[in-house]
Every structure is written in structure tokens, then in C-alpha cells.
Backbone:
């Protein structure tokens, strides 16, 4: 019995070390190594997100979009569970964060468990960036959900403006 418990604890420690190593590799810009590591792990929301990041930075937006769609499918159940905690302070912090590129940072299971709405927003932000890389202007204008547009994320606003400009030029 004790051996089984000890083995489970060791496996948990290895998983935590893998998460930390993966995050470090992504922060360092070692996308090949990160992709290889995350590809050996089970496909959960954090791993799909991180694999999509690797592909985004490798300028493979088509493949990244496929992983993002899989990740979106895993978020639907979590979104209903977290109540809104809007306050003036949180709104101000969120507005400041919307101007940076924190969504292009790796995440782990802890993050997906505790911040599912932010994960959903970040998935959309990456998806829109991929659509910009692919110059899919109609897709951007059709699929940016009003829920995310109201947050005024800088990359979303820029993508919408770019899509509208390109649409006008093509008419």
C-alpha cells in the first residue's frame, strides 16, 4: 500500500516538474523542445493551448487553429462554473492587461482550473492573431464574439480595424 502511494506522489511530482519545464521552455522561446515535451503529455486544455502557442510562434497558424478549436471544445463546461467578480479594481487591471500580450504566455492546469474565463478570452486572442497571419479578414469580422470585443483587447481591436480596412480596399 505504501509503495502505491509513494509512486503516485512521485508521478505527481514529475507532472509538476514537466509543467514547470514546459513553461520555462516556452518563456525562453524554445518552441521545438516545448512542442516535443507537450506532445508526450495528455491532451488537456493547458497542453492544447501551449501546443497552439508553439505552432503560432512557428508561423503555422492553420495547424494552431485546429488545436485552438479542440481547446475551445474543452472550455464550454468550465465557463458556467465561475461567477463574475467584476469590481472597479479588477476592471482596471483587466484593461491594463488587455494592452499587453500576456495571452501569448504559456499556461498550466492550475491556470485553466482557476481562470477559465480568461483562458477562453486568451484562446480567442490567439485565434484572431492566427487569422490575421492568414489574412482571413472575413473570418475575423464574422467570428469575433461580441463578448470579447467589449473587453477592448488591443490585438482584437487592431485585427478588426485591419480586417475592415482590407475589406474596404477589396471592394
Residues:
Amino acid at each position: 500500500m505504501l509503495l502505491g502511494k509513494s509512486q503516485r506522489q512521485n508521478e505527481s511530482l514529475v507532472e509538476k516538474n514537466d509543467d514547470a519545464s514546459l513553461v520555462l521552455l516556452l518563456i525562453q522561446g524554445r518552441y521545438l523542445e516545448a512542442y516535443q515535451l507537450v506532445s508526450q503529455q495528455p491532451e488537456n486544455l493547458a497542453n492544447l493551448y501551449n501546443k497552439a502557442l508553439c505552432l503560432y510562434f512557428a508561423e503555422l497558424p492553420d495547424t494552431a487553429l485546429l488545436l485552438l478549436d479542440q481547446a475551445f471544445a474543452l472550455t464550454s463546461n468550465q465557463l458556467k462554473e465561475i461567477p463574475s467578480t467584476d469590481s472597479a479594481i479588477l476592471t482596471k487591471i483587466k484593461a491594463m492587461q488587455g494592452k499587453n500580450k500576456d495571452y501569448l504566455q504559456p499556461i498550466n492546469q492550475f491556470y485553466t482550473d482557476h481562470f477559465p474565463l480568461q483562458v477562453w478570452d486568451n484562446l480567442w486572442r490567439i485565434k484572431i492573431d492566427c487569422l490575421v497571419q492568414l489574412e482571413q479578414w472575413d473570418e475575423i469580422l464574422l467570428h469575433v464574439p461580441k463578448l470579447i470585443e467589449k473587453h477592448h483587447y488591443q490585438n482584437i481591436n487592431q485585427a478588426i480595424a485591419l480586417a475592415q480596412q482590407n475589406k474596404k480596399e477589396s471592394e
User: Anything to note?
Assistant: The chain has one domain: 43-170. DSSP finds ten helices and no strands in the chain. The mean pLDDT is 84.
